[in-house]
Amino acid sequence: MVFSRVPTECNIEIDGEKVKNVKETVYLGVKLSEDGKMGGEVERRMGMTMQTVGAMKKEYESREISREAKVTVFESVTIPTLTYGCEVWVLTEREKSTVKMLIGCHDVVTCCQCCHD
Q1: C-alpha span between 32 and 25 (Å, rounded)
Q2: Using CA atoms, how far apart are residues 2 and 8, in angstroms rounded to an integer?
Q3: Is the pTM here over 0.85, yes or no?
Q4: Domain locations in the chain?
Q5: How far, in Å, are 3, 43, 55, 58 from residue 95 at the CA level?
Q6: Cα(104)–Cα(75) distance, rounded to whole angstroms?
Q7: Distance between CA atoms of 88 and 31, rounded to whole angstroms?
Q8: Rounded distance, CA 57 to CA 59, Å?
């Protein structure tokens, strides 16, 4: 993969075999795209976050589990699912707004520096 604002072909060969050039890949858990934009990664993280919330729906709705326990789970599982790798995100205002909405601006300063200017 070559990071560039314009499509760039990379011709690399290993043992005479050309290495396939890809437009995006997941590396160390973060989706990278050749144009350097993070929109795909943010959308992927949002989807993963919604899956996490969905998987915990019964627990979040349970009257037998204290609010404190629910908040602890949210802070320790849900927020990190969304914000993993956010230190390198460059977000549009719309993406920032969506991330803030998803985490309810829940201590955004410590959880996601990307949401603040």
Answers
A1: 5
A2: 7
A3: no
A4: 1-36, 38-115
A5: 21, 9, 24, 28
A6: 11
A7: 11
A8: 5
In the beta sheet, which residues pair with residue 14?
17
Q: Are 41 and 85 in contact, with CB atoms under 8 Å apart?
A: yes
DSSP letter (8 states) at residue 21: P
Locate 116 and state its tokens: 């603040």
Question: Look-up: residue for tokens 């601006």?
Answer: 105
Over residues 33-46, the pLDDT tens digits come to 888 777 788 888 88
pLDDT digits (tens, 9 = 90+) for 78-96: 888 888 888 777 778 888 8
Closest by CA to 34, choosing from 74, 4, 65, is 4
Calculate the alpha carbon distances from 84 to 5, 12, 77, 87 in Å.
Answer: 25, 31, 11, 8
Backbone phi, psi, residue 49, to 5°: -65, -45
| Cβ pair 78, 48 in contact under 8 A | no
Angle between helices 93-102 and 39-55 (to 10 degrees): 10
Q: Which residues, in sequence order, are CB contacts of 51 under 8 Å at separation 6+?
A: none
